[in-house]
## 1
Amino acid sequence: MELMRQQEVDEILSELRLDNDQYVQVMDRMTESFNRGLSKEHNAEAAVKMFPTYVRSIPDGTERGKFLALDLGGTNFRVLLIDLKPGHEVRMKSKIYAIPQKIMVGPGRSLFDHIAHCLAMFIKEHKLEAESLPLGFTFSFPCRQEGLTAARLVHWTKGFKCSGVEGEDVVRLLREAVARTREYDIDVVALVNDTVGTLMAVAHKDSKCLIGLIIGTGTNACYMERLENVELWNEDYDDPKEVLINTEWGAFGDDGLLDNILTQYDKNVDEGSMNRGKQLYEKMISGMYMGEVARQVLVKLTKEKLLFNGEISDELFTRGQFYTKYISEIESDAPGDYTNCLQVLEELEIMSPTDEDCAIIRQVCETVSKRAAYLCSAGLAALLNKIDREEVTIAVDGSVYRFHPKVHNLLVEKISELVKPGLKFNVALSMDGSGIGAAIVAAVAERMKAQKRELNNDYI
């Protein structure tokens, strides 16, 4: 690739290539945002809300029995039947159901009726009508939890716009929809954020797991916090004196703390989104937006005649048409091999690209995904430093983590540079956290209820 062209490409990509000092600043500002969210005085105006989840314990290994889980977090949802056996064995049956676009943006009642109807079909299929099984409900949207089985939706994300749900208790809406079917009975024992489920699925086998992370359609993290630091805590201070906190860190930067690193590409992505000015950190990291950030850069390079001889296809010029999965596919090519890249370009109706074009596209993808992983690492390092335990496992799930060939290594690399000296960490894939994890939260809730009953009986 001729030197001049490469220099011009590097110049355009330079604002997406942050130095380590900038990532340290992001980490410090994230820590500041965590503390504001935890504080009674500042929570109301804090961008990062730090919601208590009311989950007070990770599994202790004694949880047993059958549990249902309902996992709603995107354009599909799942129903699962989980059987917890001795020795950490988990048996699972599950089914995926689609949510049509018209339901995603229609009345809330229609959404919950659709879920209740699919739940009924699953219960019939597995002949569970006679049982009233405990259910863990994974609801992967920003909620203000008021208890383990009470949570009000703060606002929709990920393309949902159902009316009549924001500000309402989603557990109540689910229970009412189930009651309207008159076909079966369930006992919703825990509302679970997907990050909590992700954490719990790994904690079932690894007691050092204290952080859950999602990098998929959206991004979020949860972690175990000491009750003394949770100023909005409104329940008992009995042992264990800790609670999982759902950070809702996707909103980091909505108060201006990321303005100094936002690029024109980020601003364009935000302008074209359904939730302008919100979830700015998420828009720099997650699968719903990463492909669009890359597309914005590719359009700029093409307009500057640094790609495709300045000729742009309608597809590439169309918002949302460069999917995040393309980034994973292009970066999966071996160095110097452009098989996946050429296939992607064919889908975008870009004919006869040169090897130089493919090399530039790969650089763009690598730059955008590395920035996403490093920004995420800054948040994780802030959490590890805050927890301040000798060794912590981070449970991770989500399509970006699962399918991007380098994200795991990029996270480990940058966290290692940012975390306090002496703190050890592991990054582990959570297998089906929002499903199995939700059932495990339900199992822990049942175990803790039983233990409390026994304790009360001892005092009688």
## 2
Amino acid sequence: KELIMASFTPKPLHLAKNMNELNSKSSGSKLQGQTAKMLCKSSEKLYLAAYDKYIEGDQEHAYILLLRYLDVLQAIRNSKEYKTNKKQFDKMTDATKFKG
């Protein structure tokens, strides 16, 4: 999916009262013990869900999902599997593959 500037009315703020509260809602993911391949699948789902929420006008939810997506990418890059096969995992987590 190509990220486009959709003409929509953003939903009113409903998940948090401020950025600190919003940021805290993105934490708490259980990433330890997951394989890098499983995390890659999760990252794709998070990215696509964030895109859908953005298109729906729910910018808060999209923001939370994108923060989780970044946490998952960081966990992938910190994994032993990533260190042994960087090219494969970089290709699997490349967000440009969602265009079109």
## 3
Amino acid sequence: EQWYQRRYGDIREFGWRNYYAYDEDRERELLNLLGARHKMARSVGFSSFRDRELRHTMAGSSDNVMSFLTNLHSELQPLVKTELNHFKYAKADDNRHDFSEPSINPGDCHYYARALNERYLVENHTENMFLDMLVVENVLEGMNVFCEDVLKISLVAESPMSGELVNNDLVKVGVFDEKEGLIGYIYLDLLERVNKPARTCLHTITCGTHTQLPVVVLQCGFVRNAQKNTGQFSYPRINLDQLQTLYHEFGHALHAILGRTTYQTTSGTRGPTDFSEIPSMLFENFISHPEVYYSAISPFSVYKESDFKFGTRNLFNTPYTALKTETSILHSLLDQELHSSTLPPSTMKIVEQLQDRYSHLDHMSNTAWHHRFSHLYFYGARYYSYLWSQSIANLIFYNLFHDDPFNERAGEKLKEFLKRGSGTNFRKSLVELVGYEFGEEDMIAALVEPIRVFNNSYLDQQDISKKWW
């Protein structure tokens, strides 16, 4: 068994090194992309691509982005060290012969994060119970329950016209406001099929303006449950990560459906990335709240709230949230540096320097994880938007919904905010929604404090001298 555990660690490292191996072709393509972006930005009067991308965002400048990321990193350090202490002890426990503090490499990280998270699930709620409830049909009905209670809108499945759908798997959903009637359509394209991209995302067909109804497609790639001896199928069960992702995209969908602006370019998700990600992050907060989860799912389950033990904790808190956040900071900083005014001859030195300074995980020689970091293409100079938006979503949630997630008055304020899009002063709109003027310090606290509370209530109570699987 001792040999097996050590050998398994070698296999993890082998897998990581091979998957993220340095690739000369990928490096050349990345440098070509950076060069083209730099040239384009300079041709229209900007010193760098990031300056061009950030000019109309909430952050406003790369200085503000860098300040937010580096100060957030500083605040996270004690929490990251607490989490890594558990990782290191678990690795030493595997090795049996060596209970000194071993280093945690990136290949170890995912493995021990999963092990710690499984322990947390077992101790705080039975994962099988949750998966029993997470049938996609139930989740969609739960979304409707929440929307009716908080936003006063209903989701109604409708019969499509002949030839309207590209595939019979799609479901046409009309969105109805209790006062205004039909306000838009969401097409649910949730199941995998041949040649369909394996991505979870939202496609905007038409934007919501004062003269047209919005139409969007919510795309997932859930594996269908085939019925034996028939050509029929049923929606599958999904796990907690998929549930969180589905609600994230549903936040985007409602942002697009509720938006009513003069111009399409400022409606719904058509705005600065660090603004348009706020509703999607907010909906992750909603489904993470036990009351929302219970009310949305339990009517369709044999289980009761008393069957679970995590009380008022955030459903998606994990024993490695601080480490995940630190990794997001590293990725965001790399994104900023690669799109700065200095075009690098190679990306490797920048990656190694940033990882040495901003990550507790050592860089592994001859690897280039950033060659597979697709957000450098899709979110060039804007990857920080996830953390930025999550911080503001947390401010909204904890000020308006945490104590009462079904607060109708708060729901009305949120609904009005979503209607405005990004055509107005969105900073002013956010201040009105949150209820006070907030700054960088408040945003950082909104990210760090939930992690600190979780670590204090769970990780700090664990006896890491005990073997736990």
